[in-house]
Amino acid sequence: MESVFSTSKRKLLLEVAWEVCNQVGGIYTVIRSKVPAMVEKWDDNYVALGPYFAQRAAAEFEPITDPDATEIGQTVRKMRQMGYAVEYGYWLVTGRPRVVLFDLNSIGNDQLNVIKAQLWEHHQLSTLNVEDLVNQTIKFGDMVRLFITLLAEEHSRRVDFVAHFHEWMASTGLPDLRRDNVKVATIFTTHATMLGRYLAQNEAGFYGKLPFFDWKREAIHYGIETQATIERLAAQQAHVFTTVSDVTARECEVFLGRNPDLILPNGLNITRFAATHEFQNLHVRYKEKIHEFVMGHFFQSYSFDLEKTLYFFTSGRFEFSNKGYDLTLEALARLNYRMREAGMDMTVVMFMVTKQPYTSINPEVLHSRALLDEIQETCESIEKQVGERLFLAAASSTDNTLPDLNKFVDDYWRLRLRRTVQSWKTKHLPPFVTHNLVQEDDMTRFIRQANLVNNEYDRVKIVYHPDFIASTNPLFGLDYSQFVRGCHLGVFPSYYEPWGYTPLECVVRGIPTVTSDQSGFGDFIMQIMRDYENRGIYVINRRTQNFNEAADQLANVLFRFVRMAQRDRIAQRNRVESIAEVFDWSNLRSYYDTAHDLALKRRKP
User: Fold this and answer.
1) CA distance 9 to 589
2) Are 322 and 207 in contact (CB under 8 A)?
3) Are 497 and 520 in contact (CB under 8 A)?
């Protein structure tokens, strides 16, 4: 839809992020998944700007060997003539947008010191003794600033430029663009405040204390004064300031000194199946793969009925209380007690997937999996042998009765099967962590303290997997999205979560999910939907309940879920999948359109 502020001038949108062609963290998902919807609206007038890291870009970037005559191509050529290494090409994702990537090695230490001196002189931004990452972002920010300045100087008479900056890491050049009155409309989006992330995990009752924090004092205390100041400057100097949720907007006022103009919720690029049963089939297929892992991990010690087993999981970066891992484990301990009290024959296997330093996968876990594979191969050989001999016997027999199948198995295979099974079985409890951690952490301590150590009588089993799941992983042989599809429920009752992609990734794959009202996603769901629980999205109240009350609420949700009939769970998966479209970027892009229009309107003299 054409903006009411449009003039005869062409508009060109630059999206600036550290994560362009650079897969580090959740903002990569935001930018990358949004590309098709942006290209649909802007076509060739959409260009992404990012840092150039040769190794990371290799898989996703296709260079344009000779810069074209477009405004972008001309500006790339000009920067190269000035001695900067600038890469220009296409991002190999759906939509194939043009990208400009800046090689940070173009700026030496002397020049970096000059840039830092100017940042101090213009904005009192202290950059003494900062970590290397901050130095890299300052180089990146200055090259972006120069690029946009050259672009606007040469072409702003014919083109209206909009530059959308994501996070402090992309934004060190934004304040000077405003100071120099460069003809570009600017938007700054914070996806999470630096201080919020630090304080939420270190200050009990963070939200209650929020209005009383002194941002500067806290930033110095946590050693992030430079990052927090860049974030604050960018928020204050941009024409339009936005964040991803109302939850984060509350922090912005305190830490960044400005209320966001707009909320820009996050979406995904969603491909729906034409036939509803298709995603249910995928669930069954990937659940079988998880069954294989569970048999290898648990059945050497004891077995349980896989037809009566539910797979729950949680995942994300290792922030023990921010991500609600503590609440999840507490609720699981209560669920375990209730299921045992009720004499239930159901089993819940809970996967805790996060990233922690480890030395290797536990050799016993790998060995057990390898022996299970050998048992499977032996059984397949026996099956083949029995099948061939049974067919021959049946065809040549005058008797209609089924022959004794034991006679069809060679002694070799009998012995091999018995030996493999014997060497596989053990009296040890199945380990609750799959890798050898460098050191004990909050997760292992809590699991032991709650005695969720995979006793045979426990109805809730724990698998703590301190590495992200990828298809190269020898334990599962699944990529993360396939693993999600194979599970029954995603559990993410975060205390601090500016948006929260993990529950949204469940929804789009037809998997019911637990979120919280302190996560941007949970808050958004409560605003746009009345019957979210009926549709398989459970929202834990962490805003007004204490830890104990929230743990009880979560335990109740999990207990109700475990007691559901299988057909009710299937119906719920259909209902969850049917609302995925709400979160498609083609629907959520309109929030971005509004921000870009507002920036252009405010930029106009």
Assistant:
1) 22
2) no
3) yes
pLDDT tens-digit map of 349-382 = 999 999 999 999 988 888 777 777 777 777 777 7
What angle, rounded to 10 degrees, do the helices at 325-341 and 442-449 form? 20
Distance of CA 344 to the CA centre of its chain: 34
CB atoms closer than 10 angstroms to residue 27 = 23
pLDDT by residue (tens digit) across 99-145? 999 999 999 999 999 999 999 999 999 998 889 999 999 999 999 99
- Give the number of other Cβ atoms within 10 Å of residue 10's Cβ: 13
Closest C-alpha to 206, from 251, 245, 249 = 251
CA distances from 413 to 248, 374, 389, 420, 422 (A): 63, 12, 14, 10, 14
Question: Inter-axis angle of helices 501-508 and 520-528, to 10 degrees?
Answer: 50
Binned at pLDDT 50, 70 and 90, residue 6 comes out as very low
Q: What is the pTM of this model?
A: 0.86
Question: Within 397-472, where are the H helices?
Answer: 411-424, 442-449
Question: Is 196 in contact with 248 (CB distance < 8 Å)?
Answer: yes
Cα-to-chain-centroid distance, residue 539: 19
Question: With contact defined as beta carbons under 8 Å apart, do 255 and 195 qualify?
Answer: yes
Integer Cα distance of 509 and 97 in angstroms: 27
Across 14-28, 176-190, 416-430, the highest mean pLDDT is recorded for 176-190
- Average pLDDT over the chain reads 91
Sole residue written with tokens 């030496």: 108
**Token digits of residue 602:** 């405010």
In sign, the C-alpha dihedral spanning 33, 201, 496, 212 is negative
Contact present, 151 and 72 (Cβ < 8 Å)? yes
Q: Are 308 and 345 in contact (CB under 8 A)?
A: yes
pLDDT band at 491 (very low <50, low <70, confident <90, very high): very high
User: Around Cβ 344, how many Cβ atoms within 10 Å?
Assistant: 15
Tokens 């014919």 belong to residue: 158
Each residue of 505-551: pLDDT tens digit?
Answer: 999 899 999 999 999 999 999 999 989 999 999 999 999 999 999 99
Indicate left, alpha or beta for 181 from its phi (over 0: left) and psi (-120 to 50: alpha): left
> Helix, strand, or coil here: 240?
strand
Q: Report pLDDT for 350.
A: 98
Q: How many Å apart are CA 590 and CA 251, to the nearest integer?
A: 24
13 touches 71 (CB < 8 A) = no
Rounded-to-integer distance, Cα 540 and Cα 560, Å: 14
**Residues 103 and 147: beta-carbon distance below 8 Å:** no
- Alpha carbons 185 and 206: distance in angstroms, whole number: 35
On whether the CB atoms of residues 164 and 596 are closer than 8 A, the answer is yes
